[in-house]
Amino acid sequence: MSDKVTASHLSRAAVIYVRQSTLAQVERNTESTARQYDLVQRARQLGWPAGAIRVVDGDLGVSGSVTGQRDGFEGVLAEVALGQVGIILALEVSRLARDNAAWYRLLDLAGVCDTLVADADGIYHPALFNDRLVLGMKGMMSENELHVLRARLEGGIRNKAARGELRRGLPVGLAWGEGDGEVVFHPDEAVTGVIATVFSQFQVCGSVRATWLHLREQGLRWPLQKGAGLRPSEITWVEPTYHAVHTTLTHPAYAGAYVYGRSRDETRLGPGGQLRKRRRRLPRDQWEVLIPDHHPGFTDWDTYLANRTRSAPTSARRPAPRAPARSARAAPCSRAWPPAGPAAASSRSSTAARPRRPRTTTARARTTSSTDAGRGT
Length: 377
Prior knowledge:
Elements: H1 7-10, E1 13-17, H2 23-28, H3 30-37, H4 39-45, E2 53-56, H5 71-81, E3 85-89, H6 93-96, H7 100-112, E4 116-118, E5 123-124, H8 129-162, E6 174-176, E7 183-185, H9 189-205, H10 208-217, E8 222-225, E9 235-238, H11 242-249, E10 258-260, E11 263-269, E12 275-281, E13 289-291, H12 301-317, H13 342-353, H14 363-375
Parallel strand pairs: 1-2, 1-3, 3-4
Antiparallel strand pairs: 4-5, 6-7, 8-9, 10-13, 11-12
């Protein structure tokens, strides 16, 4: 038993904190998870009875760098603040926290409430200067380690994306080939036929809505696939939507371009004080990687730019319209919505020419007005 462990510590609970950063690590790194659960035996050796040892594993599959979303860690902090925990055991300090904000919050509470912190190297009391110095350095190294690992990973990803070889999700109609960075058409001609129809019909109509109505009038179904084109998957056929047609016309991959970094994740505080992430689309001049003529497409790059210009006013002016009922008399390339025909024009002219009825004042209104005038109101 360590000389830092006192009867006061033994009278409270010993908490074993178990965590893996992702669910994939939980499934694959079984040996690391088993080592963390074996810390129960170490708590027994330090003098805690079996009934006073608790295992907190609610954060399995949650990253230690996530703030405010680890229920297990937050529960441990609450019990430490209430003076119910004598010692916290973890395989290493990175299991407890990967950011200094959460790490020092734990150290402050543990130092005030006389709670020990233990890892594979030793037992520490956060209220002692030397122990807190060591724990602070370990927390800093843990945060820096995460930064270095992330920088290496993102650097490799960007380097591969700059060559056009990083396999990301592709829209329906395109699929990855066997070679490095090879993109081919979908093997199902029915899928590529619908996509080709969208581009050809848009050249005729010049309207996203008219193209969408043409698909519905022709009874064409829209292909959906799972897996985002990373590997061949089953196609599901659904009713075409305005959003699907607009996304197809404005997606650069259909023009044979390889792009990376079209969006950026932004973190902000929500109404309840919680951190929320949202994805923001970036303008074309801020894309990290843009390689035109990377693979065969359904249209060329110049036509793609023209399509974006022609479709942007429509999408910005109004939301996606609702699908009307099919009618044999509906024009497939109608541009105006609602249509401005002779009937609409005559209706507006008749409304403008209609004389206004003169306003009349009732006897009751005249009496009330004269009474108010007499009162001086």
